[in-house]
Amino acid sequence: DTEVTQTPKHLVMGMTNKKSLKCEQHMGHRAMYWYKQKAKKPPELMFVYSYEKLSINESVPSRFSPECPNSSLLNLHLHALQPEDSALYLCASSHRQGLGPDTQYFGPGTRLTVL
Amino acid sequence: DQQVKQNSPSLSVQEGRISILNCDYTNSMFDYFLWYKKYPAEGPTFLISISSIKDKNEDGRFTVFLNKSAKHLSLHIVPSQPGDSAVYFCAASAAGTYKYIFGTGTRLKVLA
After folding, report:
1. How far B43 CA sits from the closest chain A CA (Å)?
2. Parallel, antiparallel, or unpaired: how do β-strands B10-14 and A31-37 relate?
3. Given CB 3.0 to 4.6 Å as the disulfide criterion, which of A13, B17, B21, B73 pairs with A17?
4. Cβ atoms of residues B43 and A109 within 8 Å
């Protein structure tokens, strides 16, 4: 089983709203990731959590706030977003045990539209 | 600085023929390479990977070849099927890092 689930599938929000994206995996993976993907572009890494601690923040604006409540869950809290933040937000997870090759498995994504 | 490049934005192939998708990289620290397939508005699906200690890895209809001296990898799909029509991304990572660097993708269209 290599399933990563994401909710909601679609989200429309105004610039003053607060919303959250949710990601879940039950593969025992210890690393979880948020990516942003714009149309016709590759996924861009935003955040990495390793063993529930934030390991990488790719200089993401503070209007995006990640949270990892436990090893299976990853949230992305959104506040005061801009229309240019509209994109497909992808969650991924990987084993990340040791330094060897590590495959990331992606969820289906949340299509976010900011009005 | 585009460390992973897919120079062909699109490729059309007849059903039953071979599809060859190419990827070049510049960072010699990369030692693990992956191919993902992506349908519109969906997340990337992992297809196949290869470690730098190998030059070939095969899984069913999919084979990935790695040429380290040329810093080049390719994905072969044989035989191609209409359901293979999607965008294909190659990705690369270095040992001990969490980062994948993705190429810009190649849109494959398999014609029935």
Report:
1. 4
2. unpaired
3. A13
4. yes
> Which residues on chain A place their C-beta less than 8 Å from a C-beta of chain B?
2, 4, 6, 31, 33, 40-43, 45, 48, 50, 55-56, 88, 90-92, 96, 99-109, 111
Question: Which amino acid is located at A55 in the chain?
Answer: S
Say which DSSP state B76 is in.
E
**What does chain A come to in residues?**
115
- Which positions ≥6 away from B49 have C-beta within 8 Å? A101, A103, B32, B33, B34, B35, B57, B64
Helical (H) or strand (E) element with B51? strand B45-51
What is the C-alpha separation between B99 and B32, in angstroms, rounded? Answer: 11
Count the residues in chain B: 112
Q: Find, among B64, B67, B86, the residue nearest to B77 by Cα.
A: B64
Ordered DSSP codes for chain A:
---EEEE-SEEEE-TT-EEEEEEEE-S--SEEEEEEE-TTS--EEEEEEETTEEEEE-S--TTEEEEEEETTEEEEEEES--GGG-EEEEEEEE---SSS----EE---EEEEE-
A31-81 residue pLDDT tens: 999 999 998 899 999 999 999 999 999 999 999 999 999 999 999 999 999
